[in-house]
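ok here's LRRCT domain-containing protein, seq below lol
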Amino acid sequence: MATAGGGGGGGVLVATLWWICLMWGWAHVAPQTHQCPSHHDLAPCACTVKKNGLDLLCEFTDQQHITHAMTALKGSSEVIFYLKLRHNSLPKLQDFVFLGLDIRHLTIHNSSLAVVEESSLSSLGKGLTQLDLSQNGLISVPSAAFRNLHHLLILNLNHNRITAIHNKAFEGLDTLEILTLYENKIMTIESDAFKGLDNRKLKRLNLGGNELQSVPTSALSSFDMLKKLEIQENLISEISEGDFQGLQSLDSLILGHNQLMEVPARAFSHLNLLNSLELDGNQITHIHSEAFRGLEENLQYLRLGDNNIHCVPSDALRRLHRLRHLDLRSNNISVVPEDAFTGFGDTITFLNLQKNDIRTIPSLAFENLNSLETLNLQNNKLKHIPEEVMEPIVDTLRNIDIMDNPLECDCTLRWYREWLKNLRDKDDDVMTKKRTLCTMTSEHREYKLQELPLERMNCVGKNLEQTSSSNAAEPRGFCTGTVTTALATVAVAAVSSSYCL
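and the structure came out like this:
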């Protein structure tokens, strides 16, 4: 009996322990619930419960009401996942205003903020991961207020009035991954401006929309793990070899909309992992044949649109044997030589030549574009696009835009209607809806290309004799100076001041 009794007691003990463990497990598995303070306590701010905590929004109010709302929140232990203070009158962020609060994402946007006191953010150091102070009146980086934010991942200071980044401006932000300073008035970045940031952590830096006159090389050179650098929309008029040294992990460089007039030799030679380069919107007329040395193995996206380039910079591009996306829109290109894409064209899937001055395309110009899927020739001066020009690429093309050209309706355009009919699992609807027109001079009227009245045009075979003769006089190697026809002579006169080598 004693044994039996002992066994029974043991069973009760086991059952009790099992029940305790079960309740403990439920306590830890059960989802945590969040609760907003009363509307009266928070007004005029609004509160919403989210999965990870509270979402608070205070708009069109002032410092007094915001301080009152923060005081109401201090009595709870709730996680404030988002605190958004937008369109307010908040010229100063006062010391200890967030003391006792656990805030993960803080936005103070378009609120006339000009002063961030030293201890205003210090209590948030253990939880704050994102801080947005954009579109305010800051004239300098509030460095002292940032010093304790040791878990911050993203800092947004866009659209302020900061004129200079002084040494150690971001000291203490040793976990920062994204720093964006777009559209301030920055003219100066001191050599140790970013000292204190962990150069292994920072992945993206945006200095666009400022007043920099040169690349801040000394300040950037330690960022050997930086992936994306944006310095577009500045006043940079010159780059040279060595400007980007130290940035060996860079994947994307945005230099668009500056004042560059040329791309010199080896300007990007330190950026061996660069995948995307944007040089659009400058004043570039000359691209050195060695301009892209060092980018051979990885560059896939190159944007050269909205410049003053007079011909395809083939010599500079030939080493880019992985290039997929080439944008040359809105330049002054008038002739595409037969060898324009020789040596690098077999990987290109996207080619944009729209808004140039192209009048003719020789029969072999696209012969090397074996992977081309998108071709944009919109808004040029083309009257004819013969079938033999398109034959090398017609099987891979998914999208072609030849709108806004003075095309003449003739048999050489028959390929377009046939190509459009054969589209399968591609951009059929988009292409069908395009109003690509040509003019039938004999009838003084326009036709959509897919509605060409071929039965009245007496087209025979592929019309190869006609297209061959129309292209027999095309200049070959125009951009390297070989000119053999009267047409090419006229073209040379128009671009005598251009550089292509």
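fwiw Residues 181 and 307 are 26 Å apart (CA to CA). kinda neat tbh
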